[in-house]
Design a protein that fits this description.
The longest helix has 10 residues. The protein has a three-stranded parallel β-sheet with strand order 1-4-5, with helices on one face. It is α/β, with parallel strands linked by helices. The model has no long low-confidence stretch (mean pLDDT 94). The protein has a single domain, classed as Ribosomal Protein S5, domain 2. It is globular, with a radius of gyration of 12 Å. The chain has three helices and five strands; from the N terminus they run H-E-E-E-H-E-E-H. A hairpin with a 5-residue loop joins strand 2 and strand 3. 30% of the residues lie in helices and 21% in strands.
C-alpha cells in the first residue's frame, strides 16, 4: 500500500491498519488471531482496519473493511 500511495503521490490514513496474508495471485488470505490483533490495533489508536473477507470481527472503536484482493485493499486504503 505504501509503495502504491507513494507512486500515486497520495497519503495513507495514519489511523488505518491492514491485516492479512497476501497470496501470489493477489488474494488477501485469512490469518490467525485476528481478534487479538484488531483489539491491540484499537488500543494503539487505529480507527479503521482492512482485513481478509470473511474474517470481520466487531471491535469497539474500529471500522472494519473486508477485502478479498490486494487491488481492493489499495482502493480502500487510498479512498479519500
Amino acid at each position: 500500500i505504501a509503495v502504491v500511495a507513494s507512486f500515486r503521490d497520495r497519503l495513507v490514513d495514519p489511523e488505518l491498519v491492514l491485516i492479512g496474508e497476501v497470496g501470489l495471485g493477489g488474494q488477501v488470505r485469512p490469518i490467525s488471531q485476528l481478534e487479538l490483533r484488531l483489539k491491540e490495533a484499537s488500543k494503539l489508536g487505529f480507527r479503521r482496519a482492512i482485513v481478509p473477507k470473511g474474517q470481520a470481527i466487531k471491535v469497539e472503536g474500529l471500522e472494519i473493511v473486508e477485502v478479498s484482493r490486494v487491488v481492493d485493499a489499495i482502493a480502500q486504503a487510498l479512498k479519500a
